[in-house]
């Protein structure tokens, strides 16, 4: 299915960063209260990816790459292995515009991994796009993550970033969250912007130690969930 979104669907958010409105889900990809702020606060800050020496990031829902760009800012040139799933990649011109247009002013847009990605985008349908720059690797798999095989016990960091549990419920089910928890390495940390009770309970049932943390603007709380080191 061809993606129907275009640059006309871009919209500014409260911190000045841009996001995109999805017609299909009736929601924006990033927070209207600040897309970049949310990425930094919840996903980067919540997981502590910035202080991991060799981060292995699993992202559920690559979207418009906001979380990737915010991660590239803090990881800079340190070793990074980033694996993202996205079944409906947006057009290349949308990604370019969103990350600051030709001037590349958006945070992370000048990073070599993002620059290479913009040249190679989109990932092939049913396949994987791989970018490698020195000790950094990015893979974006154009697959429905519900039926995709997830790496087991691999991720030091998980960004659980589907659309809301109401709009995109399949990414928040007990069954799927159990699979996502299985992708975490012992001691690995998952972060998600949702603090819904059923999401928290599903993460607890999946064997993770879950805590609520103060949220970014527009959100009272978000969830941080850690896999105990003694759990496979
Ligand atoms: C909130 S957006 C993600 C925003 C993104 N993390 C970012 O930083 O820009 C949710 C994304 O999940 C994707 N998605 C939803 N269900 C999916 C599924 N079953 N498999 C793969 N991707 C899915 C949507 O297409 C959308 O791009």
UniProtKB/TrEMBL annotation:
Chain positions covered by the region annotation Disordered: 212-232
Lineage: Bacteria, Thermotogati, Deinococcota, Deinococci, Deinococcales
Membrane-spanning parts: none
Protein name per Swiss-Prot or TrEMBL: MnmC-like methyltransferase domain-containing protein
Organism whose genome encodes this protein: Deinococcus piscis
UniProt xrefs under InterPro entries: MnmC-like_methylTransf, SAM-dependent_MTases_sf, tRNA_MNMC2
Signal peptide: none
Domain MnmC-like methyltransferase, chain residue ranges per copy: 111-227
One Pfam family recorded for the sequence: Methyltransf_30
